[in-house]
Design brief:
The structure holds two protein chains of two kinds. By secondary structure, chain A is mainly alpha-helical. Chain A has four helices and three strands, in the order ααβααββ. Chain B is built from six helices and no strands. The chains are: A mainly alpha, B mainly alpha.
Chain lengths: ~100, ~180
């Protein structure tokens, strides 16, 4: 095992600890939305709300939960509303 | 060969740093806040965490990787007494017990060693840490012929040391990722 793969294994172990102890910064829904947004943002700079709602990772999430999680992601800085006049568009940011 | 050298360097360095932190920072704090506590054992023994994580990552090579660090720490604490039979026995116990328990687990069909295609089980590694802590406490107390109350102190110190070392590592990873 190389040095970098040892570090990766340690990081994986810490992720397992994170899950067990509930130290995760994002809730499961928030994480799914963020993953979906990240995937969609590979094709376009901005991500549209309805594109996110239709994403396979998010489609089973209820509307109120989806919008609550979306708002929380904006507050945590993972997403920000696009400066364009058109609302419902978001820019994806790397985790801080 | 290079890998052996770097494994030994990092594992021993981690052991020495964890020991210095335990003996120079945490124990004085423990004595300050719990002056009535009779035992000389640390209630937060971080080196146990280094032993467990090194054995989990390196397998049997952890024995040799940790040996210089463990020897150095024993020499720093006990001086020339490090060559006494009881101390040498304690060094051997400190470096061999954790890898032995991981290999016994593997032998009975519970392979906990890291694999690229597998999610590691944090709770299982913690479990091995607890079992080895019990074993190390019993064996070390036999080697040093210590009082029974020391067993409990060693146990508490090892288990909390492993937990807080992992928690520290977790926050160190998070901080590094945020800065990156």
């Amino acid at each position: 095992m190389t040095e970098i793969s040892k570090l990766a294994e340690l990081r994986k172990l810490m992720q397992s600890m994170e899950r067990t102890l509930g130290l995760e910064e994002l809730s499961p829904v928030e994480r799914d939305i963020y993953y979906a947004a990240e995937e969609l943002s590979k094709d376009q700079q901005e991500v549209r709300t309805f594109g996110l709602i239709e994403h396979t990772l998010v489609e089973s999430v209820s509307r109120p939960t989806f919008f609550r999680a979306l708002k929380s992601l904006v507050q945590k800085g993972y997403l920000s509303q696009s400066g364009n006049a058109n609302r419902g568009r978001y820019i994806v940011h790397a985790p801080r | 060969m290079n890998r052996w050298v770097s494994d030994t360097f990092y594992a021993s360095l981690a052991y020495v740093v964890a020991s210095l932190l335990t003996f120079e920072v945490l124990m004085p704090l423990q004595n300050m806040f719990f002056p009535q506590y009779p035992s000389h054992a640390s209630l937060l023994f971080l080196p146990h965490g280094v032993r467990v994580l090194a054995a989990w990552l390196l397998g049997w090579r952890a024995i040799f990787a940790l040996l210089p660090g463990v020897f150095l720490v024993f020499a720093l604490i006990g001086g020339w007494d490090v060559f006494q039979t009881s101390r040498l026995l304690a060094i051997a116990i400190a470096v061999t017990t954790v890898p032995a328990v991981f290999y016994i687990c593997k032998w009975v069909g519970w392979d906990l060693f890291p694999k690229p295609d597998r999610r590691p089980c944090w709770a299982c590694v913690m479990g091995v840490g607890v079992v080895t802590s019990v074993l190390v406490a019993i064996l070390t107390n036999m080697a040093f012929d210590s009082a029974p109350e020391e067993y409990i102190a060693y146990l508490i110190g090892d288990i909390s040391g492993l937990f807080f070392l992992m928690l520290g590592l977790y926050y160190a990873f998070r901080l590094t990722e945020r800065r990156a």
